[in-house]
Please model this.
Amino acid sequence: MPKYFWLIPLLFGLNVVFAACDERNRQPGIGNGNSKSIHKLERNNASMRDFDLENVVRAKLENDPQLKSADLSVNGDAVRNEVTLSGTVRTHAARKKAIELAKSTKPGVAVNDKIDVKPAA
Model:
């Protein structure tokens, strides 16, 4: 038998040990790479809350007779507790009403007003 035959099983064993250590670091919550995945998870949860906030505001706008036909977009950021309204309405009163309704959806919500007033021609 060759003189260094015992080296093959030793190297194979070390390879298995190192591969197991590498796989351990890839599991969630273990190793250095988990902060990015945690951030993605938080952002996904925030997106769900954004969607919910937007739906509540849209529902209020659609239930108002004055704003039902308005061309408004709603963009929510639940983490920052703010809603951005954009689009066009026909009167300043409709614009004011849209802002009031958006503010009434959640305590302390900030409303970014990007609504244009364009009277019917």
Notes: Strands lie at 71-77, 82-89, 110-117. The chain has three helices and three strands.
